[in-house]
Amino acid sequence: MTKVQAYAALGPGRPLEPWSYQVESLRPGEVLIRVHACGICHSDIHMIDNDWQMSRYPLVPGHEVVGEILECGPGVAHLTPGIRVGVGWQRSSCGQCDDCLRGQDHLCEESTGVITHGHGGFASHLVIDSRYCFPLPPELPTEAAGPLLCGGITVYSALRAAGMGSGLRIGVIGVGGLGHLAIQFASRLGNHVTAFTTTEAKAQEATRLGAHDAIIIRDGKPDRRPARPLHILLNTVPVPTPVDVYLDLLGSDGVLCYVGAPTAPLTVPVWPLLVKRRRIMGSPIGTRATIREMLELAALFGIRPRVETFPLAEVNRAIEKVRQNTIRYRAVLLV
Ligand SMILES: [Zn+2]
Ligand SMILES: [Zn+2]
């Protein structure tokens, strides 16, 4: 029996408070993790605020978890105590539907989330299905690996689904928690990267992260065009953007891909899609296989989330900074 010391929201929008629960015993396939670090994702804040009308309270946020296996439940053969692992958004999938059977378990309609169907990683411990925790390569530091498990896989999987290989021209809108990782993945894998951002300081930071060009967005629109048409344009910002302007930056068969959900529906002119066979797509998290691939590539190519760390006890101060968008680029709680 383990007593888990956590921080929980007891109601919508409430500051987190110390809260504990008991883990009696592990069910088949589960593991008990001692949490060492946990990133703060904007989805945690949407869940705290019940923005998606699916939150259950007490709500323990946290789905960018890094920790160490303490105990394995019955039937867990591929993990052993002491292994350092990461956990992301997903808690389970049905294993039976068409999406699961074709290896796209992150698209499963019966899938559950770490914080939508259980308690998350702003805590001393986490219990999770062993199939949804991932051994971490030793190159990835504990305090910086967490944001790869949600932010990193979200952009990496989206770029792959949009056709990223190497030698392509890829644009990234937004240099924040997601964008700063997308720039690193796309450029380290041998693509020409153009960042779109709102300030000169972030443009310079984008260049340091690996972008080959950075274009300033003024009054919602880029102030110039990239030198050549883009193959892929990844939109990481959740604010409305002028679709016609960005579609026009794509070449034939170009893809405009959304990983941040704008608050209002898009208005899409069809003609720019039709004449150049362009596409608009969205993408959520990634498959388990893609998570493993992403972690290996991050280790191999030196892709590292830039993080600000906070002790778990200062979780409310960290959340406030995330709400105010003053974190560069991802907040991580150290437990
Ligand atoms: Zn997330
Ligand atoms: Zn399924």
Instruction: Extract low-pLDDT stretches.
Output: none
Secondary-structure element string: EEEHEEEHEEEHEHEHEEEHEHEHEHE
Q: How confident is the prediction overall: mean pLDDT?
A: 97
Could you please say which CATH topology of the largest domain applies here?
Quinone Oxidoreductase, Chain A, domain 1
Strand content: 25-35%
Name of the top-level CATH class of the largest domain: Alpha Beta
CATH superfamily of the largest domain: Medium-chain alcohol dehydrogenases, catalytic domain
Name the helicity range.
Answer: 25-40%
Bound molecules: zinc ion
Q: How many strand elements?
A: 18
User: Could you say how many structural domains there are in total?
Assistant: 2
| Structural class computed from helices and strand pairing | alpha/beta
Report the CATH architecture of the largest domain. Alpha-Beta Complex
What is shown here, in short?
This protein is of the alpha/beta class.
Describe the structure.
With 335 residues, this protein is an alpha/beta fold. It has 2 domains: 2-149 and 285-334, Quinone Oxidoreductase, Chain A, domain 1, CATH 3.90.180; 163-282, Rossmann fold (3-Layer(aba) Sandwich), CATH 3.40.50.720. 25% of the residues lie in helices and 29% in strands. It has 9 helices and 18 strands. It has helices at 42-48, 98-101, 142-161, 179-188, 200-209, 243-247, 271-276, 288-301, 315-323, and strands spanning 2-8, 17-23, 30-40, 65-72, 84-87, 90-92, 112-113, 125-129, 134-135, 169-173, 192-197, 213-218, 221-222, 230-235, 250-258, 279-282, 307-311, 330-334. Strands 3, 4, 5, 8, 9, 17 and 18 form a 7-stranded mixed β-sheet that branches. It has a 7-stranded mixed β-sheet with strand order 13-12-11-10-14-15-16. Helix 3 packs across helix 4 and helix 3 (142-161) crosses helix 8 (288-301). It is globular, with a radius of gyration of 20 Å.
